[in-house]
């Protein structure tokens, strides 16, 4: 999927961001992740990039491949904001979708059990009242079996997930409160497939990756991988972790269990990328915010990133606010700042008012475990990054 890239060169000794490389090394020494790549852009210009760690030895005696700007990571739930929400924003800009559209208008069978009034806006804002989580894996193992799921291309699992969401009962009155829910983005992925008439992976390629010239980001089709139509270069793709359920190291296969059973693509996860393509996509969104690109309209992007359009300081439309990631005590968090994080150790921070973007990709040890230590590390890393940004700006 990605082509080899040159090793990232450490910044000059007088670079104000040089110490961020040391902080990446701290994360490795704390055994939070084996490798990480980070990029900072200001007004589109790449002002700092750093890579630390390696992808592990392939064979005894062979040197481990070092992390570089060509390293590909499972970006996990960054997919929800950078791909699923970006597709929705693109179609809202084109008039193919409206934020106040009822979901039941696009998803047949969704309107039962009091869900007919739920709007697209409420799903994006996590205020639809849907359950936060659901144990899809246990049900799918019983009804389909792991071997069957592995060879079916995810069709049975995808339909099962859609049916469960359609049959689900509300946990709260729509619009009354916000609760982050993976079901919201599984639902949005299904809605987008209905609207476009194609799989989510093909829609993302057609409407985002190909038009923007992004060649090192995309979904990995697990059925094609198993049939040998797609191969994974272990010197380029970072291993995500050992899976006790699938009984192997996950490398080039999405770690998220439900998305894996769905064939490798969903509105929640499944996208793999280099830091460079994620960084460029974040920069492009800021270009749209200022009306310098017509990929997404300025009005639409401002509505998605603002607080007054149905979101809150913590949860915007399809995005998180930035305060939890960068520190609740930070006084310089601006109204349109947003972020997204993934359990595999990936995060982005967008500061449109200042025209800064920060991309942090890593392969966190044991992505199924608690995020407490990773969140504490990110808090220190992003707080210091923010301080260095302010110093660089004078």
Keywords, please?
single chain; 394 residues; alpha+beta; 15 helices; 11 strands; 13% strand; globular; disordered N terminus
Quick summary of this structure?
The protein has 394 residues and is of the alpha+beta class. The protein is 39% helix and 13% strand.
Order of helices and strands: HEEEHHHHHHHHEHEEHEHHEHEEEH
| DSSP helix fraction | 25-40%
Strand order of the largest sheet: 2-1-11-10-9-8
Decide which structural class fits the backbone.
Answer: alpha+beta
Mean pLDDT figure: 91
Structural commentary:
The protein is of the alpha+beta class and 394 residues long. It has helices spanning 19-29, 78-94, 103-106, 120-124, 136-143, 146-152, 155-167, 182-196, 200-212, 222-226, 257-261, 275-289, 298-305, 323-326, 372-393; strands at residues 35-42, 45-53, 73-74, 217-219, 241-243, 248-250, 271-273, 320-321, 338-342, 346-351, 356-362. The protein has a 6-stranded antiparallel sheet with strand order 2-1-11-10-9-8, with helices on both faces. α1 (19-29) packs antiparallel against α15 (372-393) and α2 packs across α9. The longest helix has 22 residues, at 372-393.
């Amino acid at each position: 999927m990605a082509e080899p890239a040159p090793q990232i060169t450490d910044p000059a000794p007088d670079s104000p961001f040089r110490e961020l490389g040391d902080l990446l090394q701290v994360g490795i020494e704390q055994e939070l992740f084996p490798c990480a790549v980070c990029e900072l852009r200001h007004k589109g210009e790449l002002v700092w990039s750093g890579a630390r760690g390696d992808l592990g030895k392939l064979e005894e005696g062979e040197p481990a491949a070092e992390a570089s700007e060509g390293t590909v990571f499972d970006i996990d739930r960054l997919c929800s904001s950078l791909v699923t929400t970006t597709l929705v924003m693109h179609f809202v800009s084109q008039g193919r979708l409206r934020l106040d559209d009822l979901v039941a208008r696009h998803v047949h069978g969704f309107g039962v059990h009091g869900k007919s009034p739920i709007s697209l806006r409420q799903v994006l804002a996590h205020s639809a009242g849907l359950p936060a989580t659901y144990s899809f894996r246990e049900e799918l193992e019983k009804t389909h079996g792991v071997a069957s799921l592995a060879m079916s291309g995810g069709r049975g699992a995808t339909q099962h997930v859609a049916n469960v969401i359609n049959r689900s009962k509300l946990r709260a009155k729509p619009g009354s409160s916000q609760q982050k829910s993976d079901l919201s983005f599984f639902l949005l992925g299904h809605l987008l497939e209905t609207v476009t008439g194609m799989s989510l992976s093909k829609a993302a390629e057609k409407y985002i990756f190909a038009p923007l010239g992004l060649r090192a980001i995309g979904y990995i089709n697990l059925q094609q991988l198993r049939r040998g139509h797609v191969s994974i270069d272990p010197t380029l793709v970072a291993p995500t972790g050992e899976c006790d359920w699938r009984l192997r190291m996950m490398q080039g296969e999405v770690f998220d269990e439900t998305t894996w059973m769905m064939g490798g693509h969903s509105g929640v996860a499944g996208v793999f990328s280099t830091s460079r393509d994620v960084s460029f996509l974040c920069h492009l969104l800021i270009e749209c915010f200022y009306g310098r690109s017509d990929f997404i309209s300025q009005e639409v992007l401002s509505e998605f990133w603002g607080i007054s359009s149905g979101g809150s300081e913590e949860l915007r439309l399809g995005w998180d606010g930035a305060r939890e990631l960068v520190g609740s005590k930070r006084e310089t968090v601006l109204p349109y700042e947003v972020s997204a994080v993934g359990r595999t150790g990936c995060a982005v921070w967008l500061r449109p008012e200042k025209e800064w973007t920060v991309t942090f990709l890593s392969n966190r040890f044991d992505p199924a475990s608690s995020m407490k230590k990773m969140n504490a590390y990110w808090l220190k890393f992003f707080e210091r990054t923010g301080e260095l940004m302010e110093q660089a700006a004078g």
